[in-house]
Amino acid sequence: MKIKTLFALLVVATSCAGSENNSSIASVGCDLGEAIQGRALKIATTVAPITSIVANIAGGSSAIITGIVPEGTNSHTFEPRPSDAATLEAADIIFINGLVLEEPTKDLALANIRQGSSVCELGNEILPESEYIFDFSFPKEGGKPNPHLWTNPPMAKQYAQVVRDVLVRRDPMNVAIYEENFSAFSLKIDTLDNAIKIASATIPEGQRKLLTYHDAYAYFAVNYGFDVIGSIQPSSFDEPTPKEIGELISQVKSQKVRAIFGSEVFPSTVLEQIGAETGVRYVDVLRDDDLIGEPGDAEHSWLALMRFNFVTIVEALGGDASALKSLDVRDVVKDEAKYPQ
Ligand SMILES: [Zn+2]
Q: Is 0.85 surpassed by the pTM of this model?
């Protein structure tokens, strides 16, 4: 009888600890979670650029990475599938962009996370609230700051640094690999950063103006001296109203914008309309979080995605992108079989 009572108490205590962990907001934090021993670290990520950054740090280790958000989908409105719950439950660490980009995935992660695992919001980790950018597509009253930090290479490097720190702490067996990969990757980001500065300087000063459909270059623009004169996509992700299109057309004419940039993930006839009414060229191939090619391709990487976008921007604005074209954009360790993206 006594033994049975004790057993019942133990069961209650264990299940309490479990449910406390499931609902606890304390699971969100890059400095949380236990170190694992004697097995492979399981990592879950969300959008492809973040998967690629994590894969650059983890490449060649025993860690296993699973990306949740399929490439080419709207990451801002993505709803995880019920089957993603199993991936999130199995993960030791879940890297998300944060800044309110992937709330449904974060909620599913927190509902399924195991004790000892954690969710690391990279954007929240590196960007103080005072530096959040709010704008037309991400208005302050909507409560969602512009989350596109990964299109600004120095911020992506900070993401990589957080990833390195987390992996070193959670997976002590592979510390040397994580450290070495970070050194190599940060060197590649510094080289990319330098090439963007050289290429941007070739754009005549008055032409460094960005009018994009999807508003993915706010932090990039501040860093490299571009002026975001507007973005076309409203915060609802619907098409803009005729009044808003009219205002953009006047802005394009008055500011003498050289080109308008659309996104492959968000095809829209609005660009064509603005282009036709202003005579300004539109380029609709920017890729905000959809990597180039297929997993296994040399250019299926965050680095190649950045190079493609910045070459496109620089050339459309009348600059010389040759500094960017000569970059080596392959991942630090190419290991796509182990790190499908
Ligand atoms: Zn986006």
A: yes
CA of 139 to the centre of ligand 1 (A): 14
Determine contact, residues 144/120, Cβ cutoff 8 Å: no
Q: pLDDT (tens digit, 0 to 9) for every residue of the chain, 341 residues total?
A: 334 333 333 333 333 333 344 444 447 999 999 999 999 999 999 999 999 999 999 999 999 999 999 988 899 999 999 999 999 999 999 999 999 999 999 999 999 999 999 999 999 999 999 999 999 899 999 999 999 999 999 999 999 999 999 999 999 999 999 999 999 999 999 999 999 999 999 999 999 999 999 999 999 999 999 999 888 998 998 899 999 999 989 989 998 899 999 988 888 889 889 999 999 999 999 998 899 998 888 899 999 999 999 999 999 999 999 999 999 998 998 655 444 44
Ligand 1 mean position to 5 CA, how many Å? 55
We find that the CATH architecture of domain 30-189 is 3-Layer(aba) Sandwich (3.40)
Architecture of domain 199-325: 3-Layer(aba) Sandwich (3.40)
Range(s) within the chain of domains with CATH label 3.40.50.1980: 30-189, 199-325
- Say how far apart CA 31 and CA 56 lie, in whole Å: 20
Sort strands 281-286 and 259-263 into parallel, antiparallel or unpaired.
parallel
Residues with CB under 5 A from ligand 1 (ion): 216, 288
What distance in angstroms lies between residue 306's CA and the mean position of ligand 1's atoms?
14
Query: Any residues with CB less than 8 A from the CB of 255 and at least 6 apart, and which?
Result: 209, 229
SS3 for 264? coil
Q: State in Å: Cα 30 to ligand 1 middle.
A: 23
Centroid of ligand 1 to alpha carbon of 99 (angstroms): 12
